[in-house]
Amino acid sequence: MSQKEQEIKFISGNVAAAYAARSAKVQVISAYPITPQTTVVEKLSDFVDSGDMPAQYIKVESEHSVMAALVGASIAGTRTFSATAGQGLLYMSEMVHWAAGARLPIVMTIASRGIAPPWNIWADFTDVISQRDAGWLISFASSHQEIYDSVLMAYKICENEEVLLPMFIAYGGFVLSHTSKPVIIEPDDKLEKFLPPLPDEKGWPHIFIDPERPMMHGNLIMPSGFYYEFRMKIHDEMMKSTHIIKQAALEFEKIFGRSYGNGLIQEYKLDDAEVALINIGELALQAEQAVDELRQEGYKVGSVKLRHFRPFPIDEIINIAKKVDVIGVVDRDTAFGSPTGGAVSSECKSALHNTGIDTIILPIITGIGGREVSVEQQKEEFKILMKLKETGELPKDMIHGTLWDGILEVK
Amino acid sequence: MVSLKELQETTAEELFLPGNSTCAGCGLELALRWAMKALGPKTALVAPASCLNVVVGLWPKTAPNFPFINMAFAAAAAAASGISAAFKAKEYKFPGKVWGKMTSLVFAGDGGTTDIGIQGLSGAAERNSDILYVCYDNEAYMNTGIQRSSSTPHGARTTTTPFGKQRFKKNLPAIVAAHNVPYVATCCISYPIDLYEKFKKAKEIKGFRYIHILAPCPPGWGFASEDTVKMGKLAVETGFWILYEVENGEFKLSKPSKKYLDPSKRRPIQEYLEIQKRFNTLSEVGLVKWQENIKNAWKYIELELELKEKSE
Amino acid sequence: MWKIIAESKDKRPKLQNYKNWNELSPIPISFPCYGSMGETGDWRVFRPVIDKKKCTKCGFCWMYCPEGVIQKSEDGFFTIDYVYCKGCGICAKECPVKAIDMKRESEFE
Fold it and tell me: Looking at CB atoms within 10 Å, which of B122, B222, B270, C17 has the fewest?
């Protein structure tokens, strides 16, 4: 069970998530298989049944029961973990809202996949985005190491007494879940310095099952009662959690030596850039390669990795807008009927409202349903932004004010 | 069989505090009162959306003097599985404390068990999850105002079956017994000592245990609040509600139901049906179907008992 | 403040009083108390009265009361807590010697 030395293992993103749960000494796991997350479930089963990890593993019969079991286990005062994807996340939507309303620090990794119909199992973040208003913190991982590190940071953030909210860590299905790269697995002594201790006998401070101190959570509350205020507290405490996220990233860098920007976003060559591209997930890592290649050709471009979508990093987006003249915000998700068609670009636009900054935001949508986005395509996107900055000319094939990049021409 | 005098000494404490908002003469309250007397305060009760969820009071006051968790409608069995796994994890981390002795209990209504909760129930039974699942059967969705559920019997009038229900009552104890779980039992609130003993026995068993309690409901069934206990007694005396246990596959008829194995001892089913207003549109054909169903149910019981004798 | 009342049973008040949202705990928690729906005794139309001369102290009324307001007293007889008794009438119906009478509540005002 104990990891004495730091090890480097050549593993897939899913297996990295399983190793992170093992490093965090999770106590109760409840999971249900769904492509592309099946290997998380299998690896965790391997750990638990071989005695490597002393956790309780409940092999439930549906995703709704996954979340119900985790809510129950978390109320009783234990550290919990699970993983799911696309359709499964939508099925457990009722309980997702319950977990946030009960303020339980549950951590889930999502190997995001496209939403049916028609069936699609490849990378597409619409499933996580559809749960954006539930009250969960949402974080995107762009590399295999980042999946492992994000899970560790997640426990530090969520179990903090000022936050006490659950968190999603999303990464592209099949792109990160089934490809393998070397991942550093940290030893126990370093982890003990970073991670909070497991909940003690008394359980969480706000909700517990204890025959000595009987209490009930979740009674009926009248509209004239405090229901309104309790719900407002969730938003209030989520917005205040930004400084705890930044603290966790700083401490992580000090102990483990890996930096993730300021925790909420990670900037790349942005200081003297004229245009910038904001990405979520692994496209952000690929955009850094596009930035390097364009800089060699003499263009001044920069890219930003949006690590946390919830809480939305309003101040950081405003700072980026002050540095550059044109920002392209790339969504790998759809939000039908919204002002831009994608969620991240809508929220970036609303963050800049009434600030007096006249940076242009160009909403871009790519890669829906796992369609491949190449470095060349991203370089083209940068060139479109440069053209917009110089001539003010929008690209020709925009649909309802958004550039849907990569659409096949049907001839 | 423990005596009433003994119980008056040992179980004097009320765990479900009076002054709550159950109806006067509520069957559910009598069931919960005796169940908690048997299980004691070291219980965590999960209640999905049902009458129980709402009668426990408005925030910040509540009635149960033991840990109580409200839960979404379809999630009760899975949440209780999670709680019981957490107790095991805590017992591993803090050995020798109270966590190894806690019981994880579900107190669901017939709607939350036979309709929306049956997936969770079947999953938990198949996994042999260490929980005690209790279904209190008031034969309709009473909380939302008397709508029909799978557990409503033939001919009953509810707001969604205004001329009597066409289909028959789902036999849930038999469905759960088919999952090969350690303990299945049926109870009735009019026999509190029998209920107390079954709960006491279930508390000691490890694995998935299921108890199904018939809980008459005065407003829902249409009788005066003083007749709740009489209604339960009639259900057993007419042979409609059979009290039995299935322990590790072994069938056992409970003492109050033993004498009704003889059809001549059973009271005619009309006595049970005519005093409830919900059966006043029951036709002659419906009455014949009722009598047939009771006869067939008892024939099945006789077969079970014969099989048991042959194997001994 | 809410952390102290969730910490130990002795420090919790009977009822939590809040003035504004800053004092609230993160989630609504309720503590058990008698009379969570108020004094339910005022629901009654009829009141059960035990006749001690007929009572045989069998305990059936105690066993069948759904609310649990009938308790055994020192002398072996049973007393009814009229603050919470809802007047359902099950005790009177089930008493084997008919020692409990349901009298009109208006006679007691």
Answer: C17
